[in-house]
From TrEMBL:
Keyword Transmembrane: no
Any GO MF annotation of the entry: DNA-directed DNA polymerase activity
Record protein name field: DNA-directed DNA polymerase
Keyword terms: DNA-directed DNA polymerase, Nucleotidyltransferase, Transferase
InterPro entries in the cross-refs: DNA_Rep/Repair_Clamp_Loader (IPR050238), P-loop_NTPase (IPR027417)
One GO process term, biological-process aspect: DNA-templated DNA replication
This protein's record includes keyword Cell membrane: no
Pfam family for this entry, one: DNA_pol3_delta2
Length: 310
């Protein structure tokens, strides 16, 4: 049973935990699940859809939720980089009041890993002594950043992003060009590739860069084309990493050996060298906020050329 199905069952049986902690990597659907649950808890007439319930979308409470004026829900938004103790105290006071028109009072805390120690301790008091008919939904992409005492008092839901064929099937309607994706890319595609999977123009840019890179590797094209793409496309570095990694996989996985022979004539050693300089450039850009991006990419380009000519 999926998370929505399990929570729907607990909702119907009035067994929902008073604190739910949703954790998982960025892009795994944590926020969508939290919004679905808050909308369900607000709705006066939930509808059955398969194994899970959904808000009806047209009752008074649902209409207020859509207009962001439903009085019995609070999404905690901090005006600073961290969630401070005053923010949590505000949510605690909100939960102490009786619901105006709904059955439940709900608080959602996005980016809970940004809570200060003082804020976490203030939240802990509410978790230890929950008010009746109140539900706190905590969202984090890094559960290790939360106090163990906070985590231990929540029902934990761990989200895993779609990958491979499942992810392709989900986004296929938005990008029909994915019908031609090769088996290797399909098997190893993951949530970090969403930008090119969902948008046809971005996917076309990816395919052009891939062809330019393969032409350069196989000495079939001008290096100037790849240089322009590397300088002008924000995704280019990540795409080079992805393409090189897939070429390495193709050399080591027997079922993709034919694909490797068609795409790349390089030895494993040379591919490893290419991958190393790409990873080094990526690491440099991530580690140093003030680094000159163009200079790093130019150095990467010259390193690629040097390796391929050696």
């Amino acid at each position: 049973m999926n998370h929505q199905g399990l929570l729907s069952q607990q909702y119907s049986q009035k067994r929902l935990p008073h604190a739910i902690l949703i954790t998982g990597p960025i892009g795994s659907g944590k926020h969508d699940l939290a919004v679905w649950l808050t909308e369900l808890l607000a709705c006066r007439d939930p509808q059955q859809g398969g194994s899970s319930l959904t808000a009806c979308g047209h009752c008074k409470n649902c209409l207020l939720t859509k207009s962001q004026s439903y009085p019995d829900h609070l999404t905690l938004v901090s005006h600073t980089a961290s969630i401070g103790v005053d923010d949590i105290r505000h949510s605690n006071q909100f939960l102490e009041k009786t619901a105006h028109i709904g059955q439940y009072k709900t608080v959602m805390i996005p980016n809970a890993d940004a809570m200060t120690i003082a804020a976490s301790n203030a939240l802990l008091k509410t978790l230890e002594e929950p008010t009746s008919d109140s539900i706190i939904i905590i969202i984090t992409h890094d559960i290790e950043q939360l106090l163990p005492t906070v985590v231990s008092r929540c029902r934990i839901i761990t989200m895993q992003p779609l990958a491979g064929q499942q992810l392709i099937e989900q986004v296929m309607e938005q990008n029909k060009a994915l019908e031609t994706i090769d088996d290797l890319e399909k098997e190893f595609v993951n949530i970090s590739h969403v930008s090119e999977l969902k948008n046809q123009e971005t996917y076309a840019d990816f395919q052009q860069l891939k062809q330019s890179y393969l032409d350069l590797i196989n000495q079939n094209g001008s290096s100037d084309v790849l240089y322009e793409q590397l300088m002008n496309n924000e995704h280019a570095l990540r795409w080079l990493e992805k393409i090189t990694c897939n070429l390495q996989r193709a050399q080591h996985l027997p079922k993709y050996s034919k694909l490797s022979q068609n795409h790349c004539k390089l030895s494993t050693s040379v591919l490893n060298q290419l991958f190393d300089v790409i990873i080094k450039a990526n690491r440099t850009l991530k580690q140093y906020a003030q680094v000159n991006r163009q200079m790093v990419l130019e150095q990467l380009y010259f390193n690629l050329i040097k390796i391929l000519k050696s």
